[in-house]
Design goal:
Strand content: 15-25%
Number of helices: 23
Distance between the termini: 85 Å
Radius of gyration: 37 Å
Length: 856
Amino acid sequence: MADGPPPRPRRTSRNAITAVVAFAYLVLLVVVATGNWLTADQDRQAVLQAAERSAAATALLLAEHADRTIHAIDLHMHSIAETFRTEDGSLEEFIGRARLLAEAGDGRLPQALGFAITDEAGIVRHAANPATIGLDFGRHPQFVRMASDRSVRYVHSRPMLMPQIGQRAVVMAWPLRDRAGRFRGAVGTMLNPEYFATVMSRLAASGPAHAAAIAYPDGTIVAAHGLDAPDARGEWSLPVGLPLPPDESAAVATSGFDGTLGDRSSRWIIATAAIPGFGQAAMVAIDCDEVLAPVIERALLLAAFSVGGLLVLALLSWIVLRSYRAQARALAAAQAASQAKTAFIGVLSHEIRTPMNAILGMNRLLRTAPDLPERLRYHTQVIRSAGDNLVTVLNDMLDMSKIEAGQLELERADFDLEQLADEVVALHRPTAAEKGLELRVAPIPSPPMLRGDAVRIQQILGNLVGNAIKFTNAGRIDVEFAIAGAARGDPAGRPAVLHMEVRDTGVGIPADRRGRLFQPFSQADSSTTRRFGGTGLGLAICRRLTEMMDGTIEFDSEEGRGSCFRVRLMLTTAETRRQRDGAAPAARLRPLSILVAEDSALNQELMREALQAVGHRVTIAESGTAAVTEAESGRHDLILMDVRMPGMDGVEATRRIRAGGGAGAGLPIIGLTADATEAQREECLAAGMEAVLVKPVDFARLWQLAASLVPAADAAAAPATATATTSVAEAMQAAAAAEMEVAMVTSDAFSGMPLVDHKRRERTAAAIGAEQEGRLFAAMLDSVAETIAVLAKPGLPLDDVRAAAHRAKGAAANLGSPRIAGLLEAIDTAARAGTPPSGADIERLRETLEAVSATV
């Protein structure tokens, strides 16, 4: 008899399993922690990149706003100076009359600290602030230069402390000269730093910006938000170590800064943008710790959930191990059944797919043979379609199980209904011909391009046509289509109802068998399988697929005379007809150097992102004058010219480029305009533009025009010119026809226009990225809000109304808000006719902006 306790092998086995599971959990914990760290690091990089783009865009907006503000003050001082010159009286007489002009500017331009008039000695004779009357500017260098030099039209000072008003200010002035050109005094004002500080605080409240400033390249601050205040002497400069703003010729720049801004020490993202013509720049600072806080929070939550999940998983594993012995047999039986099912499906799939792979592969080689006759090429296409559909039939059994489990997902893609019908008919026409049947397809109504799951729709139609042929011994099969709710020319995304009808003159379905027709593995009667073959899955899958597309499938049948199956599917319209052969227009273009003339910062960024995304080099010209200068450099292949720009517009810039005779005189020019009238198009073409596109820009049409206007890199000169001429004529006719279809929207129709064109936003996001598109859309809404504030000012000149409405209208149209663009277009049009915007117009625009903001 052996001494000691007997061996316990089962407990030892369970202990070994427990140790393995514990080790596996430790490894899993390390993997999860590493994955969380990598995810957090990727999120951090993405957030910092998004913050840099946001800072750059905010700096551009601030610089553009400051430029518009200074321009408005300059225009008002110029109007006072021009009034003095034309009246040609004494300064004393003019001061009485000019008081009303100055006071009008005081009420209309809060960005200025009142307007003042000095005599020729520099003594302030009239001012909005009585404390400044009598001040002597006669010895100020800028005043001396303005009085002695007739060519000086405008001056502005460096920031100075004004004890009379208790704050720092930048003095701006225009000379008062009589008709003889003699200096008689000056009209001036002071920029209001508080106004700019308020604007900056609003920008900070609406985005991630913590601090902002307007400063000179040497660091001297004009106005700021979120920074330390000026010292007792009125000195106010950027913190030491902060990157200095660029000069006027520099583009937007971003950099990093470690230090203290205002009351916060952190790592900062600094973005600066020059203010043209003013010698200053806008600066925006974003706190990296603030924008990274959500990333850190998400990382901590993810870590907590991961650890918690592992603990829960460990607890469940412990419970499973405890009940392992009791459930072992049931688990083994379930695994055996699952393995048998998986093995059966795998063998079936392998046995059919292996020969089909060879068939389709050899067919592909045959189709690519260079000497294959066209007739045989058509046959190979039919073989290809038949093979593809045979593989689809193989998947039907799997589809049925996926549908039952709710795991089958439908795709959404553009497809050509004509092509879909052609492929189904080509597949079944030989079978119909063998039986002596006539297979007829009625003409496809417009529009033929739809969006949905073309494979599943083809599966439904092919099953119905195949059944009709199978159960028809003599006569014909008719296939008809109808599309409700859509017409040719509709924009993408409009709901459309596709009706498909398949009629045959076959055996029909007995009345007592119709209730089981759509049941799986069911046919009209047991003899059907013996006579015609089939598994009975086809119609059941058709019904399930139809229901997944929010549609219906119905049938009428008369025994001995035939059946009619009707399918109704809910789809949407597609963008345009898809090209069956050849590359897309964008792909056919070689990389180009494109000059974009555009004054709106938002539209500049949109065009730059969209063009660079397909490999083109982009140069931005912010005015017509800059476009003329840049075109003469000879560095570009194509010019995209905004028609409406302040100063020299696109039409005049085109005339000068064509008349210049330089390197850019022969460049193709495509005009971009929000004015869809024929008169505008004719004016652009008469100025020398090759074509005109209506905003928002249809990039597919732009690629088509560019491909026809710019010859390929390897094309000979003469053939390229001839081809381009023909293509340009056709493209211009197509563009003109499309523009003629655009009707001016009346105020009564605004309610019918969509608040947001989601398809437009999707196309823009596809071209420049979703984050970039979202930021630009938000910036557009802020720009429209500022425009509303400008339009609401009483007595605003009609030219200023037109300029403000046009700039915001183009951004709204390009970035996807048709209703805002339509309202601004109506205000722009009315201003051209001499009618200022009414309070109701501005209120309607404000309400629309709020509605658009609420939808995003």
